[in-house]
Amino acid sequence: MIELGKIQKLKIVKFADFGAYLGEDDREIILLPKKQVPENAKIGDTVAVFVYRDSEDRLICTTTIPKITLGEVAVLRVSDVTKIGAFLDWGLEKDLFLSFKEMTARVVRDKEYAVALYIDKSNRLAATMKVYPYLKLAGDYERDDEVTGIVYEINPDFGAYVAIDGEYQGMILKNEVHDTLNVGDTVNARVVKIRDDGKINLSPNKKAYLQMDEDSEKIINVIMEYDGVLPYNDKVSPAIIERDFHMSKAAFKRAVGRLYKARKIEITEKSIKLVQKKA
User: Fold this and answer.
1) Domain residues for 221?
2) E strand or H helix at 120, and its extent?
3) SS3 category, 85
4) For 177-194, how does the pLDDT look when each residue is reduced to its tens digit (9 = 90+)?
């Protein structure tokens, strides 16, 4: 049986001026264009091909292996955005269509997004950014593993959904998101929990003792932007900390505590100031 959207091995059944017809037998055959026919090929030879539809919606096959096959998730670049949707580069001559209704956010030309390949109601291959059902669970990841993923959906109430390595379900919870994240962004994160259901919770932050080094440096830089005196102390509201430092209040207080113990800052009732080194 010839299957749309899949790579399969089919036999050459007969030749024509414009290519070769492939199939398991002569009852169901599909065209392999002449330029794709292997050199010195003969009837009975088996060829690995990908089955899709041409510009006239006819089933056709190619020896070119696309960047994504049916049911898979891949990160693809947007080659064009039109009034009817977007078109993605998936490695074949005819770009892959992504309709507006299958987007989780508006896409931008030349940016990459995680998508899945499915067959739409018109029996055509198409892309969807709603990749959640296509992603796998857990894999071989362990707590504190460093991973890379791409954001495929943002939920303001819960956080950012991430396709880890383009294959596995991951999520950065809302309280861990301190920088602006958009669909299509690539993130480096740390595995903080493998849930019982196999889904993975992520954090863009390193372990606390490592993160404090980065946070401390960030705080010093911001104080310098305020000419050495921050106009509030460590009891400031979480909203202001988020605005100025893009970190949680707990992380801010840890880093401020480290700087204070190292005598790099002074904390008063109304400010945090850099300690001036004596000449």
Assistant:
1) 208-274
2) none
3) strand
4) 767 789 999 988 888 888
